[in-house]
Structures are given as structure tokens and as C-alpha cells.
Design a protein that fits this description.
single chain; 205 residues; mainly alpha; Arc Repressor Mutant, subunit A; two-stranded parallel ribbon; 5 strands
Length: 205
């Protein structure tokens, strides 16, 4: 299950996008995913600002921004920037990719994208871990870093994923009335076989 797309009359940045093969290939890079995540979480930015945030050089940031723009995932922010400083913003709220729905010709691109998503999530979690000792008490107490191991079949994981997405959708619908002090919160949901417990399909990897 994936969240329903936002109505088409909503402004840019509030709609979701279902990834096709071309965009899956654009996003099959963990650093590029984290560049896009920054724009979605914090709003418009420049290559220089993104480079400082991610610890990369501005040339690398510019390259990944151009690739994202070529894929129709970001656009230049109207009315901001100069010839030397370009501001960019995300076109969509989030990307949607459901491996269960992907056609056969997208299988390889989908796996490469999923691989990049996992690597990008690791990097964002590492940065979050660096801030744990400095978090205000209310955010330290509200945050959670949990890991659960369960014995499940694939259909059980699919059902649990659908239930989790329903909860996320309900909270997302209430974002417009968020109270004072609300900030972007990253909720990482991962469910995968414990490494070494499943016979790998090497021929399809």
C-alpha cells in the first residue's frame, strides 16, 4: 500500500509522485536521495547550502541538483537567486515506489533504487545519532530508535506495512493544523529479512 496522491489543484511540493523507470534510475544514488530529502524537508536551497549540510563540495551538489532537475523532481525557485546562485525546490512531497506493482521492465531499476534508499536512510540515521546528546529534553523523550525482530511471512509484512501506512496517512492529514513548535519529523520504516536467513535470488539481483 502507498499513500494516495494529493489532489491535482494543490501547490507544488504537496503532491506525491509515482516513480517510473527513468526516475527510478535518477534516484538510484544515495547522495542524490539525500539532496532531494533536504529540499523536501527544509524547503528551497542552493548548491552551496546543500554542500555544507551534507559535507560535500558544491560542484558535486550542483551535479546532483541538475540530475534531479532533468528528472523532473526539482525546479528552480521562482524569483530567487542570481546567475551565480540558483535556488532549487522539490516539485513533490514524496516519491512512491511499490515493488509489488512494478512491471518486469522496471525490476532492475527498482532494486537499484531500493538499494540506494536503504543506504541513504543509514546516512540520515547516522546524522540523527550525532544530535542525540544535544536534543532538548522534550524531543529526546519523544524520539524513538527501536529495532524489533519477528518471525513473519511475506504476506504478513505486506499487511503490517499497509497498516503502518494508514497510521502515517492519518497523521499527515492533520499537518495543516500542526501546533506551534512542530518541526519536520523523519519517520523511517524498514522491514526486511534478517541478513543470512533467506536464500538469495542471485539471478534476479
Amino acid at each position: 500500500m502507498t499513500p494516495s496522491p494529493a489532489p491535482p489543484d494543490q501547490p507544488a511540493g504537496t503532491q506525491d509522485i509515482r516513480l517510473d523507470t527513468a526516475r527510478l534510475r535518477v534516484l538510484a544514488h544515495p547522495l542524490r536521495l539525500n539532496v532531494l530529502a533536504l529540499l523536501r524537508q527544509r524547503g528551497p536551497s542552493t548548491a552551496t547550502r546543500i554542500a555544507a549540510e551534507l559535507g560535500i563540495n558544491p560542484g558535486s551538489a550542483s551535479y546532483h541538483l541538475r540530475r534531479l532537475a532533468a528528472g523532473g523532481l526539482i525546479v528552480e525557485t521562482p524569483g530567487r537567486g542570481t546567475g551565480r546562485e540558483r535556488w532549487w525546490e522539490s516539485v513533490h512531497r514524496q516519491s512512491i515506489h511499490d515493488p509489488a506493482d512494478e512491471p518486469e521492465h522496471e525490476r532492475a531499476a527498482g532494486r537499484a533504487y531500493a538499494h540506494a534508499v536503504a543506504l541513504a536512510a543509514v546516512e540520515r540515521l547516522r546524522k540523527a545519532a550525532d544530535e542525540v546528546p544535544l536534543l532538548p529534553a522534550e524531543w529526546y523523550e519523544a524520539s524513538v530508535y527501536s529495532d524489533f525482530t519477528m518471525r513473519l511471512a511475506p504476506q504478513d509484512v505486506e499487511r503490517m506495512r499497509a497498516e503502518i501506512f494508514e497510521v502515517i496517512s492519518a497523521y499527515r492529514q492533520g499537518e495543516a493544523g500542526a501546533p506551534h513548535g512542530a518541526v519536520p519529523v523523519s519517520l523511517q520504516v524498514q522491514a526486511f529479512p534478517v541478513p543470512g536467513t533467506v536464500d538469495l535470488d542471485v539471478g534476479d539481483a
